[in-house]
TrEMBL record:
It comes from Clostridium magnum DSM 2767. It comes from the Bacteria. It holds the Pfam family YqeY. GO terms for molecular function: carbon-nitrogen ligase activity, with glutamine as amido-N-donor. This is Yqey-like protein. InterPro entries: Asn/Gln_tRNA_amidoTrase-B-like, GatB_Yqey_C_2, YqeY/Aim41, YqeY/Aim41_N.
Length: 142
């Protein structure tokens, strides 16, 4: 399970005294634990992927602010966090692969431009964790 892999990697980073890696993985493990306590259930790999995606999104937003402030230290921290978190995501889809999936959905479902919500509902589960969700809406519009 992905949750155990992250925990093992955190322990390995602790033994290696890699504080930066420990901090990133500890943040993810805290989010996982929080989810499990709040929901009173064991988290699935899909749930862990959603948490990692959320952390990546937050890190990218923080990077934007750090770049605006010209904070080299924060930029380096953000890039390192992205470098640590990205390998836990499934293999990412290419843009042309997603476009092909969208075209198939539109063709098979006989959808029109007015059915954008239905198309989005169908494509989102297929690309969850494998493609940047913010790029899908414009692709469907096209």
């Amino acid at each position: 399970m992905l949750k155990e892999l992250i925990k093992k990697d955190e322990i390995a980073a602790m033994k290696a005294k890699d504080k930066a890696r420990v901090n990133v993985l500890r943040m993810v493990n805290a989010d996982i634990k929080s989810f499990e306590v709040n929901e009173r259930e064991t988290i699935s790999d899909e749930g862990v992927i959603k948490i990692i995606e959320k952390n990546i999104k937050q890190t990218k937003e923080a990077l934007e602010y750090a770049k605006q402030a010209n904070s080299e230290e924060k930029i380096a921290e953000g890039n390192f966090a992205l470098e640590v978190l990205t390998p836990y995501l499934p293999k990412q889809l290419e843009e042309n692969e997603v476009e092909t999936m969208i075209k198939e959905i539109i063709t098979n479902g006989n959808y029109t431009a007015a059915d954008m919500g239905k198309i989005m509902k169908e494509i989102m589960p297929k690309v969850a964790g494998k493609f940047d969700r913010s790029k899908i809406n414009p692709m469907v519009k096209n």
